Amino acid sequence: MAGEDELKLLGTWASPWVSRVKLALHLKGLSYEYVEQDLDNKSDLLLTSNPVHKKVPVLIHNDKPICESVVILEYIDEAYDTTGPSLLPTDPYERAIARFWVDYIDQKLVIPWKVAFTADEEEEKTEGIKKMLAVVQTLEEALKECSKGKPFFGGDSVGYVDIALGGLLAFLQGTEELCGTKPFDIANTPLLLAWVERFTALDAAKVALPDVTKLVEFAKTKRARMALSIKK
Predict the structure, then answer these.
(1) What percent of the chain has pLDDT over 70?
(2) Which residues pair with 34 in a beta bridge?
(3) What is the pLDDT of residue 150?
(4) Which residues pair with residue 11 across a beta bridge?
(5) Dihedral (CA of 104, 106, 111, 114) sign
(6) Does 26 have pLDDT greater than 90?
(7) What is the pLDDT of residue 82?
């Protein structure tokens, strides 16, 4: 259990992984200092806090760094187990199921999205979109199974899977403009579409998630720079 602790979060405003940590901290009602990082000119604090991967997010708890978004989420839930709502279920089987779906999101949704976003060839982009939409369809069924008719993957309240997927929402909402397709729609994913509306209406989401329009412009600029560097 944590008492009068010092929490510091190293991140970048556009990172979905950082958004996950912000969501967890706000849902738990925890105060923290946020330190924006320039990944083109990495700070000594970032390099010493995460010498292996040298990337964000990093949560520093009383001078002890914790890295990787899903590791940080579980750490927050365990370190502050008596503060705010629990992020992971108490039942071991349900915890395992939640971890399975978070891993599925990171391995099966994020990778094809990146392909769809960065691909130079139209065929490769189309294949990435196809895989991404298939994963979203699977997540529609996962929401039905995990929620048991309640508002969130975690049931009545936001849980581990909600935060993991919710951290990606700004990018996923910008997918139509960035990749030419909608990941959520009333015909194919009515449950997820309703979930998105509920999740983005949360106070924690309003604070933690970046503005979609700003994010889309940032992503377009980044993609243009990547294309330019490849041509060189």
Answers:
(1) 97
(2) 9
(3) 97
(4) 36
(5) positive
(6) yes
(7) 96
* Burial of residue 182, with CB atoms counted within 10 A of its CB: 0-12 exposed, 13-18 middle, 19 or more buried: middle
Q: Which of 131, 122, 215 is nearest to 168 (CA)?
A: 215
Backbone phi, then psi, for 228, in 5-degree steps?
A: -65, -40
Query: Are 7 and 31 contacting, i.e. CB atoms less than 8 angstroms apart?
Result: yes
Instruction: Please provide the DSSP assignment of 111-134 as one string.
Output: HHHHHHHH-SSHHHHHHHHHHHHH
- d(Cα 186, Cα 182) in Å, to the nearest integer? 11
Reported residue count of the chain is 232
What pTM was estimated for this model as a whole?
0.94
Q: What is the pLDDT of residue 230?
A: 64
Residue found by looking up tokens 């899903």 in the block:
70
**What is the side-by-side order of every strand in the sheet holding 33-36?**
33-36, 7-11, 58-61, 64-67
What is the pLDDT at residue 116?
Answer: 87
Beta bridge partners of 60: 8, 65
Residue 6 CA, distance from chain mean position: 23
Burial class (CB in 10 A: 0-12, 13-18, 19+), 83: middle
- 105: helix, strand or coil: helix
Which residues does residue 36 pair with via DSSP β-bridges, in sequence order? 11
How many CB atoms are located within 10 Å of the residue 37 CB?
21
Residue by residue, DSSP assigns 23-55 as HHHHHHT---EEEE--TTS--HHHHHHSTTT--
